[in-house]
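Hello everyone,

My group is preparing for a crystallization screen and wants a predicted model to guide construct design. The compound we'll soak is adenosine-5'-triphosphate. Before spending weeks at the bench, it would help to have a computed complex in hand. I've included the protein sequence and the ligand's SMILES below. Output in structure-token form would be ideal because that's what our pipeline reads.
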Amino acid sequence: MTADDNQRDKDQTPPRPSRLRDAWRVLIGRAGNGSDNGGLAPAAPRGIEYPQAALIGALIGGLPGPAIVLDRDARVIAYNEAATSLAPTLRVGEPALITLRMPELVDAIRRAGLRRERQRVEFFERVPLDRWFEAFVTPVMLPGGNDARSQILLMTFNDLTPLRRVEEMRADFIANASHELRTPLAALLGFIETLQGPAKNDVAAREKFLGIMQQQATRMARLIDDLLSLSRIELNAHLQPSTPLDLAPVVRQVADGLLTLARDRDVEIKVAVPSEPLIVYGDRDELIRALENLVENALKYAAAGKRVDITLSRAQTRAGMPEARIAVRDYGPGIAPEHLPRLTERFYRVDVADSRAQGGTGLGLALVKHVVNRHGGRVSIESTPGAGASFVMHLPLPTGNFGETRDTLDKSMT
Ligand SMILES: Nc1ncnc2c1ncn2[C@@H]1O[C@H](COP(=O)(O)OP(=O)(O)OP(=O)(O)O)[C@@H](O)[C@H]1O
Ligand SMILES: [Mg+2]
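Reply:
Good plan to model first. Here are the tokens for the complex, ready for your pipeline.
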């Protein structure tokens, strides 16, 4: 396109109806200035077209959430930085209703303008991400004037997304927990009915059923125990343990405690710990429980590998900080990569039937993650399907005077 074409295009553009333009100029306080750009302010110098706009812009600039100020005719006077993430095409001087297309919001702006009362609405945005907002549209009368220009609308927004997510998680959690409890409960009720009715005088059946009932009741008790432990650990998540703890005895205690299960499953447990103490600030019971779950998992789901290695070692984080690592390595079927990121979610199981058959509730790895997080560490999981899996607890080692920590440990143990 040549410069001439450009000129021709401009000539052919229908002129803006002049009465509308004049009215608009009056509204934004620029009446009679022929050298402007048609009354529309560019995006960058926000809030300069309206008397007091600079003050309004500075004030809402200090608000943490999105805020937009409109004039009586719903044109944008000013907006803050946070508002641009909500409505990227906002422009000072332009009608807000073009940019803010959510019908609930448009209605609220209209109602607030008409009734001069604060309106609250909730709306949902799908693009670019699912987000929920609540918006308040508050009519404000600027001091020192009682004309139309003094009546402005202040719009503020709260992002309700985190709150909604927590609500969804809570609902999911209750649904999962109830489902897990209902299964053994239904089995118990079924057996009680059978024992009261058809099997009333059948001694052999009674013995068998009582055994199963005990198993189911134990499973329910375990589920409740695990849920309570999880919520206790979560409650204390912000309190890092402060007692020095040598990890080698923890590892040995867990391995010894699971020897019977290992024998039953025909699996050999190999333990490797360093000769010198490896001391972290830790909660002994919590770490034992977490490690027990990792070793128990290896014995339950990877018995086919016939061997489980538990290795305690001193290492360094990627940032060069000292850490202790407790690795539980098995040689079983391994875990497909798509499951790895979700394994530490509550109730997540690769094979629900297999886990249930083993008395599992799917809370074990969630507990491990929470325990390790509370200790300021992290859990890593690696697996090659067909070649086993490795679960590692990374726990930060104190960086201060190590000797001092040992002294405290020695004292606390005497
Ligand atoms: N070493 C492993 N090899 C293969 N799969 C594993 C291994 N460890 C865990 N898994 C899979 O991860 C799932 C989640 O484990 P998690 O410990 O959280 O729950 P669970 O063992 O099923 O129940 P719970 O620990 O509450 O008894 C298991 O159900 C299993 O499918
Ligand atoms: Mg488990």
